[in-house]
């Protein structure tokens, strides 16, 4: 499951390893913002007064983009086919030649060309001369050109199967989607996910349940829901089995997972092949003395909704007891509100040593990500990877979201998920239930992916998505 859901706004997770790229992008955007602001003021847009739909809004949204499927709703916009052709042409011939071929020769208007690159035409430019769209187009072209272009030689299912068969060092990126078939809640889904259970906790934002500051203040909030995300049985999905199969075939370079359920281990994926980008329940650490235990040492407490105490702390307190602990003042009130109890300035209060809380080693908001991620990706995997397979994640959350952009552009990238993403260009999109997709890929590769959730006689129907050469939908026949 994804631990850190940030569908909108700033990502709270630190990504030290991508700072260089981030700075570049920020500088570029700043320059673009200035350029666009000039255009806006020239055409009389009052940027201070703009609402959410305008290109210059107060919440920092500089340019609004639209998805490919919105093109058909915009009068005068490129068709999807035209848009794809323009994008390909740009990557093929470069920026200067592309501008020469289009704007200079007046084969298309700047306004229309903006839509080819997903720019939502700002209202303040309505009725303006075509030149007014030039700065916007410049931004759009730069943005498109800096994207990793799709590799045109990889499109079909056969291509995907061949890549699998020939690859020697595969990076697999995984998210919540590979565990949902096991009934593990997806944090990101608002209604069916875990967040819907959190309303009664009185949190202003459900993400607070994974906020380290709130955990330190009152760990009971986290432990009241922790049992719902605790891995229970030793089960795993066919997709986890697929990752193990890649390992068995000597093809798995690294599985970077956003999931904290540690289910990969159940499937037999070795710890040295895994980077758990958001930590996991595999171990737990005392917040006071840093004493570490295997995760299952605190599972009983978690299942009962109790706050697990550190046994090392308990022991050291016990040895202090004879001289250290004085008789406690009798209290008429209960001590349920720990904070109030601690804040009391009453001088009659005794110092009562309390054991530290055992915190599962999952990464909370406000905590640094495990170092291993960037170290391994940049200093080891980047040179070796010859195929990337992204499974069951919308790739919106750092640091995993950064991986495709950090790898050399000639490394093929395959995407397996229920819904396509538009912010990254994959070479082949295999859409559907990931368990179904990987089992069909294995069938076609002649690999034996045995799993009780895959019926022996399963037949899978694959249909192309209209308008895309490289997008395919997988469905079990009769399902
Ligand atoms: Zn401790």
TrEMBL record:
GO terms for cellular component: nucleus. Keywords: Metal-binding, NAD, Transferase, Zinc. The keyword Transferase applies. It comes from Penicillium malachiteum. Its cofactor is Zn(2+). Residues 150-455 form the Deacetylase sirtuin-type domain. Residues 324-353 are annotated as: Disordered. PROSITE patterns: SIRTUIN. The keyword Iron does not apply. Zn(2+) binds at residues 286, 289, 310, 313. Belongs to the sirtuin family. Class I subfamily. The active site is at 278 (proton acceptor). This is NAD-dependent protein deacetylase h.t1.c1. One of its GO terms (molecular function) is histone H4K16 deacetylase activity, NAD-dependent.
């Amino acid at each position: 499951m994804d631990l850190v859901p940030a569908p909108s706004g700033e990502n709270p997770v630190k990504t030290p390893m991508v700072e260089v790229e981030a700075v570049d992008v920020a500088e570029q955007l700043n320059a673009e913002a200035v350029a666009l602001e000039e255009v806006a003021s020239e055409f009389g847009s009052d940027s201070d007064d703009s609402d959410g739909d305008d290109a210059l809004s107060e919440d920092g949204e500089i340019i609004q983009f639209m998805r490919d499927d919105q093109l058909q709703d915009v009068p005068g916009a490129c068709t999807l086919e035209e848009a794809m052709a323009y994008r390909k042409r740009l990557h093929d011939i470069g920026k200067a030649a592309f501008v020469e071929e289009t704007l200079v020769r007046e084969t298309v208007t700047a306004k229309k060309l903006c839509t080819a690159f997903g720019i939502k035409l700002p209202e303040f430019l309505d009725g303006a001369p075509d030149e007014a769209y030039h700065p916007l187009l410049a931004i759009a072209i730069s943005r498109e050109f800096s994207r990793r272009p799709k590799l045109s030689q990889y499109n079909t299912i056969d291509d995907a199967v061949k890549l699998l068969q020939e690859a020697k060092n595969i990076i697999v990126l995984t998210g919540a989607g590979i565990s949902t078939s096991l009934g593990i809640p997806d944090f990101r889904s608002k209604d069916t996910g875990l967040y819907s259970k959190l309303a009664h906790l009185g949190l202003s934002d459900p993400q607070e349940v994974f906020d380290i500051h709130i955990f330190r203040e009152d760990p009971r909030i986290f432990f009241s829901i922790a049992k719902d995300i605790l891995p229970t049985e030793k089960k795993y999905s066919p997709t986890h089995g697929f990752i193990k199969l890649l390992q068995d075939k000597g093809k798995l370079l690294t599985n970077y997972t956003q999931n904290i359920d540690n289910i990969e281990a159940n499937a037999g994926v070795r710890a040295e092949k895994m980077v758990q980008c958001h930590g996991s329940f595999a171990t737990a650490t005392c917040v006071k003395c840093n004493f570490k235990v295997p995760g299952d040492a605190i599972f009983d407490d978690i299942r009962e909704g109790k706050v697990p105490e550190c046994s090392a702390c308990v022991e050291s307190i016990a040895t202090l007891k004879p001289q250290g602990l004085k008789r406690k003042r009798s209290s008429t009130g209960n001590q349920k509100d720990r904070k109030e109890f601690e804040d009391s300035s009453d001088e009659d209060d005794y110092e009562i040593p309390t054991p530290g809380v055992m915190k599962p080693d999952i990464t909370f908001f406000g905590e640094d990500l495990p170092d291993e991620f960037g170290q391994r990706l940049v200093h080891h995997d980047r040179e070796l990877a010859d195929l990337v397979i992204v499974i069951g994640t919308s790739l919106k959350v750092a640091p995993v979201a950064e991986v495709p952009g950090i790898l050399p552009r000639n490394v093929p990238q395959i995407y397996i998920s229920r819904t396509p993403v538009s912010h990254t260009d994959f070479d082949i999109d295999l859409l559907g239930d990931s368990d179904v997709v990987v089992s069909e890929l294995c069938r076609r590769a002649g690999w034996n992916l045995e799993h009780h959730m895959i019926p022996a006689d399963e037949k899978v129907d694959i249909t192309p998505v209209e308008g895309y050469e490289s997008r395919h939908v997988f469905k079990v026949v009769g399902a």
